[in-house]
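Thread amino acids onto this structure.
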């Protein structure tokens, strides 16, 4: 059974999500809140397997919570619920390792499928949202990724999965300093300066016919 924290500032939707998850024996809702700040506190204290978060909450939004989760390397898989999300926000979310993005209009039908896929270690990133993210990304051809070495490509894939340099080093069996060198080389070859742009470029590359 997977533990879950829910956060949405719309009471009716929050109750609806709780009711839906009560019908799923593989999920256990530890807490539900309308406050982003409280959601962040609950995630930190309870360490759930999954956090289903509204992107737009009046105090602390889902993106800020995800940023804290990413920087703190908290062991929680984040799923965003959203009515509207810009391409830049989607690219930022992906670069910080969000595991799922679900439009609220599809939530009643698709939420359980999304949560099960994310819980199993997969991503839930609908193609129409990926397209929106890549349209906000760099204007240069994504085929520049062909300039990278095999090792640099491995590092780029892990970065786009939201891993920190330290986590990538552990996964690839090398040092954090070596990953930093690879990352600098990647930025230089692609003529970019940050993880968000790399994530958008990589998604664009994977969506291209040669990706």
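Threaded sequence (211 positions):
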């Amino acid at each position: 059974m997977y533990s879950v924290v829910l956060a949405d500032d719309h009471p009716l939707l929050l109750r609806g999500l709780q009711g839906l998850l009560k019908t799923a024996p593989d999920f256990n809702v530890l807490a539900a809140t309308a406050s982003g700040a409280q959601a962040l506190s609950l995630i930190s204290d309870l360490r759930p397997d999954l956090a289903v978060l509204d992107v737009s909450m009046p105090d602390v939004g889902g993106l800020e919570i995800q940023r804290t989760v990413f920087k703190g390397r908290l062991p929680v898989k984040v799923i965003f619920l959203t009515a509207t999300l810009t391409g830049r926000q989607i690219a930022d979310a992906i670069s910080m390792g969000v595991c799922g993005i679900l439009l609220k209009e599809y939530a009643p039908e698709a939420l359980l499928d999304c949560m099960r896929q994310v819980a199993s270690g997969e991503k839930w990133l609908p193609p129409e949202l990926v397209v929106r993210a890549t349209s906000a990304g760099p204007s240069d051809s994504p085929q520049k990724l062909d300039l990278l070495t095999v090792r640099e490509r491995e590092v780029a894939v892990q970065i786009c999965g939201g891993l920190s340099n330290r986590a990538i080093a552990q996964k690839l069996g090398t040092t954090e300093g070596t990953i930093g060198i690879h990352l600098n080389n990647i930025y230089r070859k692609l003529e970019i300066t940050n993880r968000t742009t790399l994530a958008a470029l990589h998604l664009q590359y994977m969506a291209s016919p040669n990706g």
